Amino acid sequence: MAAQHSLPKDQNWAKAAANRVRLPIMIPIPAGEFLMGTSDEDIKRLQVKESDWAYEWYDNDLFDAEQPQHVVWLEAFEIAQYPVTNMEYHLFIQDTGYRLPKGWNGFRYPLEQALHPIVGVSKLDAMAYIEWLNRLTGSNYRLPTEAEWERAARGDDGRIYPWGNTFDPWRCNTAESAKKGTTPVGSYSPGGDSPCGAADMVGNVWEWTSTIYMPYPYDPADGREEQRTDERYVIRGGAWYYTRKLARCSAREGMAATHSSPLIGFRLARSI
């Protein structure tokens, strides 16, 4: 794990650095209930429309991690419109000397990928970035919980994909799109946006959440929101390398907090 870095005490420097930060566009999500997880009806719908994989998933109990579907109440929060980009993360490295993400050549990303989502970062790296950003701006950014992420991705009507119940390869960056890599954030907007207006909620890159990978139903009081280094944490959204089967609002995987991959990035959330 990288050493902790403190911001310089020079207030003029701190102000100048803060002025260089492009603050994320945050979308407010009102308090309320939503349907979390995959229902039996969803599975039947997928078996009709996605029969090439949905029957196999059902036969091998792979939907179990997403069940039972249940109602979750969330307090109001904000979600970033886009994942954190290479350009944004690079300023963090410049100002702190934090370790470089895996995959960067030299001290920076390829110039043509400035607006691509940052990848090759662990959950611990994401949290270090957030701590730096909060110190610099005086804000309270954080990773979204798994429930907040899903609420932002699917709205409150239980849809399978951010745009509806039928997969469309023109609305997200998955293996079906044959991009063979990440795309600039917002490339599939507005057609691929979620009901609240968040972009790239499925496809492009998996995204870290603050939630330990545990069975449903989701209960924030059962220990799954504890922040530890020895647990697997939920990632959401699928990625460019994977097919549409993981580009669903309810699909979930678990990765060690120390794990980094060219397929995983993150976006910010904030309590209201």
From TrEMBL:
This is Formylglycine-generating enzyme family protein. Gene3D superfamilies: paralog of FGE (formylglycine-generating enzyme). It holds the Pfam family FGE-sulfatase. Residues 24-270 form the Sulfatase-modifying factor enzyme-like domain. It comes from Bellilinea caldifistulae. InterPro entries: CTDL_fold, Sulfatase_Mod_Factor_Kinase, SUMF_dom, SUMF_sf. GO terms for molecular function: formylglycine-generating oxidase activity. The lineage of its organism: Bacteria, Bacillati, Chloroflexota, Anaerolineae, Anaerolineales.
